[in-house]
Design brief:
The complex is a heterodimer.
Chain A lengths: L1 E9 L4 E9 L4 E5 L6 H9 L6 E6 L2 E2 L11 E3 L11 H11 L4 H14 L15 H13 L5 E5 L7 H18 L2 E6 L2 H7 L2 E6 L2 E6 L1 H6 L4 H6 L5 E3 L14 E3 L2 H13 L7 E6 L5 E4 H5 L7 E11 L3 E7 L3 E2 L2 E6 L1 H4 L8 E5 L4 E5 L17
Parallel strand pairs in A: 3-8, 3-9, 6-7, 7-8, 11-12
Antiparallel strand pairs in A: 1-2, 1-4, 4-5, 9-10, 11-13, 12-17, 13-20, 14-19, 15-16, 15-19, 16-18
Helix pairs in contact in A: 2-3, 2-4
Chain B lengths: L1 H31 L1 H27 L4 H26 L3 H8 L2 H34 L5 H13 L2 H12 L6 H6 L8 H25 L3 H9 L4 H30 L2 H6 L6 H12 L1 H29 L8
Classes of the chains: A alpha+beta, B mainly alpha.
């Protein structure tokens, strides 16, 4: 089990602020963030290469904040493999066992077994300089795994690899994780990779945690503006007027109608922003209900249903992405609906539809407001 | 690192071509004297320059005059460096050199020089490598000051360094005074020579070690520690093997600097006499002609040791490949 409690550390050029999260033993945590978010530094705090200014690191329930890396029993794989160039590939894999004074026969056997598992047996006699990137990464992984760690940290370990190699390594690691109950913390900037692999997803932007949860939770309900943008949420509505000359890099659409603004802000507050400020709202594309206008007319008194015009329909494989223009909103809303809506006949480009935002709208805390007030406590995944 | 690789790429052909040019020159110089050597050097340099000129013209149409100018200037530098040494060796009677080498006083002084320089190097390595490591790995306030202090012996005139050392380690000095109560004397002893040599040469160890350590990614040490080594273990198993060429070069430079030091040594410990002190004494009391075979002998010894050490360092070089 890994728990980080309010970790903070200031470097001259960067700050990690108040990072708290917890993962159960045997689960896979992916930390997603753009370049320069502090992901690697966070891993290095867990591994013990740096010590925090404040906060605690707990591994297996024990406070290891003051322990050196060698006593934390955490394996780490960096993006650039970092094989020891003066040793052969096999020597690299043997390194941890040699340090732990494992007898030679057992050492050989374990390296051989790991070599077969990662399909690198034929490379063990070679020097790192003669290996390709994918081969190096497999050796680096083998070097970490051969010591049978119960916690494995991976820093963008798949990023520099071709698709085949990357999938092969991911498969091997997930197998081992399931088999041995290993906890994996995996840092990446690739949202698909994170979504596919993670039991728990954490979003880190600018040294602050922007959200923690299962991938589904986070993708549906990113708590902050930064998280929503990073996770590629299709509809980020700006709910306040732009000041003179102000640009909004976050929003995909702006609500210009004052009455609608007012109403949507009210909806957001109902949806549960506990304190903190917000100026943007997320419209969850899957949770917007579209209805034929004839049916919508009956509920026209409902202020949550607005009338919009279909501007485009795209097949996304399994669902449709409908672009809807709504008066009072500059920019189009993207709505995901089931394929069967097409067969019903009312959904076509140019048609007017009723757009029910009731369940779909959620406030997004601004990047500056304290994240702690909006993020639910870290879920314990078993 | 790539620039290291590329520098190694050109090193070998350049050395070969230099040897091709210089070996005949030196041979001619040894046999026929310096004037002939200069003539041969010119005879080789001029066609070589012409060939370079011609090839450049063929390859690029627009030839690069700057290369020729640079080559020419380089030749002048080589001649200036080699001429006095070759002259000294070629115009001294070999029999006199051999005779000199058999003199017990010379042998004793030479042995003392070798021994004190080795001790000074060991001391510099023991005290200098940790400092090199700290400077390579840690950031702290006052680092620039520490670096300046480490480099200071290079800029302080060596006579001044000698005087300063005497004031501290002499019988009346802040350190030498208390030590003399325990009958431990520094000035005018073996250890005085070691101290003087150490003082002027230790910056080499620190700076070379630092450069070597800086070339090893600190994350390598992190990886090593996640695999179970302590910090010291990571240094021994990873950092040292990857930087030992630098450490060795640093030690060699230190040793070379130490054994060639005269000013500081003479002030701190004139006696016992090192080979340098002995030469200085002979030169002062017996003059140029008398001391000349000794000079030639010292030069031969220095060259032999220098070549051997460079060969040792070159032999270790390919180990360090930090591409992975």
């Amino acid at each position: 089990m890994i728990a980080l409690e309010r970790l903070s550390r200031t470097w001259p050029e960067f700050q990690l602020q108040d990072v708290s999260l917890a993962v159960e033993q045997g689960s896979w945590l992916s930390i997603l963030g753009p370049t320069g978010a502090g992901k690697t530094l966070l891993l290095e705090l867990i591994v013990g290469a740096h010590s925090p200014d404040s906060g605690r690191v707990l591994l297996r329930g024990i406070d290891v904040t003051r322990l050196p890396p060698e006593r934390r029993k955490v394996a780490m794989v960096y993006q650039d493999a970092l094989l020891f160039p003066h040793l052969t590939a096999g020597g690299n894999m043997e390194f941890g066992l040699r340090v732990r004074k494992v007898p030679q026969d057992e050492r050989r056997a374990r390296v051989r077994a790991m070599g077969e598992l990662l399909r690198v047996s034929h490379l063990l006699h070679r020097r790192p300089a003669t290996l390709s990137g994918g081969e190096r990464q497999r050796i680096a992984l083998g070097r970490a795994l051969v010591t049978e760690p119960d916690i494995l940290l991976m820093d963008e370990a798949f990023s520099a690899l071709d698709r085949g190699t990357s999938e092969f390594i991911q498969k091997r690691v997930t197998e081992l994780q399931k088999e041995k109950g290993m906890t994996v913390v995996h840092v990446t900037h690739d949202i698909d990779e994170a979504r596919d692999l993670a039991d728990v997803l954490a979003v880190l932007v600018g040294g602050r945690l922007q959200g923690v949860g299962t991938p589904v939770q986070l993708l549906r309900r990113p708590p902050t503006l930064a998280a929503a943008q990073l996770l590629g949420s299709p509809n980020i509505l700006r709910l306040v007027e732009l000041a003179e000359g102000e640009a909004d890099p976050w929003a995909t659409a702006r609500v210009t109608d004052l009455q609608l603004q007012q109403h949507l802000r009210g909806r957001c507050l109902d949806a549960g922003l506990r304190g903190g400020s917000f100026s943007h709202a997320l419209v969850v594309a899957e949770e917007v209900h579209l209805a034929p206008l004839s049916r919508a007319e009956g509920v026209a008194v409902d202020p949550d249903v607005v009338v919009g015009k279909v501007r485009g329909i795209g097949d996304r494989g399994g669902y449709l992405r409908v672009k809807v223009a709504i008066p009072g909103i500059s920019g189009k809303l993207r709505v995901h609906v089931g394929v069967q809506s097409l067969q019903e006949g009312w959904l076509q480009v140019g048609a007017s539809v009723g757009v029910d935002l009731r369940d779909a709208i959620h406030p997004l805390a601004t990047a500056e407001s304290t994240v702690g007030s909006v993020i639910p406590p870290p879920p314990l995944v078993t | 690192m790539d620039y290291r690789r590329s520098s190694r790429d050109w090193r070998r052909p350049t050395i070969v071509s230099l040897l091709l040019v210089l070996a005949p020159c030196i041979a001619v110089g040894v046999i026929l004297g310096v004037n002939a050597m200069v003539a041969v050097l010119a005879a080789i340099a001029i066609p070589l320059a012409a060939v370079l000129w011609f090839q450049r013209g063929l390859r690029r149409r627009r030839m690069d005059r700057s290369v020729l100018v640079l080559t020419g200037i380089g030749m002048i530098l080589l001649i200036l460096l080699l001429l006095p040494l070759v002259d000294l060796l070629t115009t001294t009677d070999p029999a006199a050199i051999v005779h000199m080498a058999q003199d017990p006083t010379v042998q004793e002084a030479l042995y003392l020089s070798l021994s004190t320089a080795t001790s000074a190097t060991l001391l510099a390595v023991i005290l200098g490598i940790p400092m090199g490591y700290v400077l390579a790995r840690e950031e702290f306030t006052g680092k620039a000051l520490v670096e300046a202090i480490v480099d200071m012996p290079v800029v302080v005139p060596h006579l001044v360094a000698g005087i300063a050392l005497v004031f501290v380690f002499g019988r009346g000095g802040a350190v030498g005074g208390p030590l003399s109560h325990f009958n431990i004397l520094i000035t005018s002893t073996y250890w005085g020579i070691v101290l003087a040599m150490f003082f002027v040469s230790v910056p080499f160890v620190v700076n070379y070690a630092r450069e070597g350590f800086e070339r090893v990614d600190p994350r390598m040490e992190t990886v090593s520690r996640t695999l179970g080594t302590t910090r010291a273990g990571a240094m021994l198993r990873v950092t040292f093997p990857l930087s030992w060429t630098s450490l060795l070069t640093g030690a060699i430079m230190t040793w070379a600097r130490a054994i060639s030091e005269f000013d500081t040594v003479a002030l701190v410990a004139y006696y016992p006499r090192t080979i340098n002190t002995l030469f200085y004494e002979w030169f002062r009391f017996h003059g140029y002609t008398y001391s000349r075979p000794l000079a030639a002998f010292m030069l031969l010894v220095a060259l032999a040791i220098f070549i051997a050490l460079r060969a040792l360092a070159a032999w270790g070089r390919p180990v360090n490949d930090d591409r992975a």
